[in-house]
Design a protein that fits this description.
Layout lengths: L1 H31 L5 H21 L10 H7 L2 H11 L3 H19 L1
Helix pairs in contact: 1-5, 2-3, 2-5, 4-5
């Protein structure tokens, strides 16, 4: 059963990576089409809101500090949050949770 367990684990890992990449890709597309100016615009907003230490942790240091929904809510305008939520077909809190989960990886992939 050891070989079967290894194969199943590898398949599950590949599926999870594919889902993560798909979620980040979709989020990247939404941000690119937003009035924020794409991913770089979001990162600028976060830097300007005192969250530069988080942004820099995503850009190659390997630290990848998490960002909270509250931090995002404080850095982005309600209009931007609503715009992202609408594009993701989510409520604002769901969109913030999605953004908090995937933004560090998306930013790290762009670094």
């Amino acid at each position: 059963m050891g070989l079967l367990d290894d194969v199943v684990g590898a398949v599950k890992g590949a599926m999870q990576e594919g889902a993560e990449g798909g979620a980040q890709g979709a989020l990247g597309n939404v941000l690119q089409g937003s009035s924020l100016g794409g991913l770089s615009g979001v990162l600028e907003q976060l830097n300007g809101s005192g969250l530069g230490h988080l942004v820099s942790s995503w850009a190659g240091s390997g630290e990848n500090l998490p960002i909270s929904m509250d931090q995002l809510k404080g850095a982005l305008t309600p209009e931007h949050i609503q715009e992202i939520a609408g594009a993701l077909h989510m409520d604002p809190d769901g969109a913030l949770a999605h953004l908090a989960e995937h933004l560090p990886g998306l930013a790290g992939n762009q670094a």
